[in-house]
Amino acid sequence: MAKVVVSCLNFHTKRHKKTVADVIDYLKKIGVRCRIVDSHGILRSNFHNTEIIITVGGDGTFLRAAHYMEKKAVICGINSDPTVKEGFFTSADDTNFKERIHMIFQGKFKTTKLTRLDVWIGNKKIEPALNEVYIGSAKPYLMSRYNIKINGCSEFQKSSGVLISTASGTYAWIGSAGGRKLPMRSQKIQYLVRDPYFGTLTPAKCLKGFMQSSEAVITPCRMDNCIVVVDCLTREYPVKAGKEITISKSPNPVNLIKFD
């Protein structure tokens, strides 16, 4: 029997709570032993040697699990309450999850590989991003100051921060900010400088496009409130001025379960 983890969101609607309970009950009914984890308390160890991950919630629940899943695992998202959750990454909901779960354990599914981004702050690697990485001021009304190195371009910039995004992320923040939408299977990495400031000392040129180099390096300077945020989730990583932030395409994609 495959090692299965079910990651659930603690959410208030009755429909969500019922879906969580029904999914767990159904897995027990069909004899699937699984570990249940709270989406907000996920640890990397929760997914060690896991083969199948089922998330019950919305896209945030899916993204948190996708940060820590290992290379060989597959993941399926169940939208617990489509009336309040977008469910962009989910392929089942409370009306059809039994059929979908049955198909998973029958091996009747396909997978789509979704690109992730590896993120380093100095010599410390943090969780990978499935959608995007934001680098900039913790307060959006304050100027972000940094040096950026990308595609052979190196320059000092002032802006509202930088977004670096995968293809799936182009349907999220960077897409709303003016980026170009890409097919989900695309391995291209896109970057966009938010609200760039143009002055006599900052004639910025590296403002948006696709990464051609193997990595992008951003180094905050003359700012003491720089943060890195992965996938718009709640954890903020503070970065001291002068410390390099390195982003590159991860060799370990997410294996998203899809059904015909």
Summarize the structure.
It is built from four helices and 19 strands.
Structural descriptors:
Tumour Suppressor Smad4, 260 residues, 4 helices, six-stranded antiparallel β-sheet, 2 domains, seven-stranded mixed β-sheet, 19 strands, elongated, alpha+beta, 15% helix, Rossmann fold
Question: Can you describe this structure?
Answer:
- It is a single chain.
- The chain is α+β, with helices and mostly antiparallel strands.
- The protein folds into 2 domains: 4-108, Rossmann fold (3-Layer(aba) Sandwich); 117-251, Probable inorganic polyphosphate/atp-NAD kinase, domain 2 (Tumour Suppressor Smad4, Sandwich).
- The chain contains 4 helices and 19 strands.
- Strands 1, 2, 3, 4, 5, 6 and 19 form a 7-stranded mixed sheet that branches. Strands 8-7-18-15-10-11 form a 6-stranded antiparallel sheet, with no helix packed on it. A 6-stranded antiparallel sheet has the order 14-13-12-9-16-17, with no helix packed on it.
- It is elongated and about 70 Å long.
- 40% of the residues are buried.
Unreliable stretches: none
- Counting helices, strands and paired strands, the structural category is alpha+beta
Distance between the termini: 24 Å
What CATH architecture of the largest domain would you give? Sandwich
So what's the overall shape?
A: elongated
The main sheet comes to: 7 strands, mixed
The CATH class name of the largest domain reads Mainly Beta
CATH homology superfamily name of the largest domain: Probable inorganic polyphosphate/atp-NAD kinase, domain 2
- Number of helices, where a helix is a run of at least 4 consecutive DSSP H or I residues: 4
Task: Give the helix proportion (percent range).
Answer: 10-25%
Average pLDDT works out at: 95
The secondary-structure element order is EHEEHEEHEEEEEEEHEEEEEEE
